[in-house]
Amino acid sequence: PVPICPMQENVLQRVLQLPVVSSTCETLQRKYSSTKESHPLMASVCEVYERGVQGAGALAMWGMEPVVRRLEPQCEFAVANNLACRGLDHLEEKIPALQYPVDK
């Protein structure tokens, strides 16, 4: 029988929701967008880069799909995610600055 894993929070989503991380990502996105808008040559280079990243991401997802399907029912991802969430709990407790945006 295959063990059934309960639905749990995703550590990557938690990290991305930390104020310090989300504010950093927003700042970087604004800088990236303004650079593309103000420098036409840079915009064309960025577009080529973006297409490459999208292609690489799609290829990585395609390559990982069989591995994910094989491991998912066995709860290895759930165990790793749970350990990572506990580690994140510890970091959030020990480093209160993670709860503030970068500018603070």
From TrEMBL:
* Subcellular location field: Lipid droplet
Similarity comment: Belongs to the perilipin family.
The entry's cellular-component GO terms read: lipid droplet
Keyword list, A-Z = Lipid droplet
Q: What is the lineage of its organism?
A: Eukaryota, Metazoa, Chordata, Craniata, Vertebrata
- Protein name (record): PLIN1 protein
* Gene that produces this protein: Plin1
* Alphabetical list of InterPro entries matching this protein: Perilipin, PLIN1
Give a yes or no for keyword tRNA-binding in this entry: no
Q: Name one GO biological process term.
A: lipid metabolic process
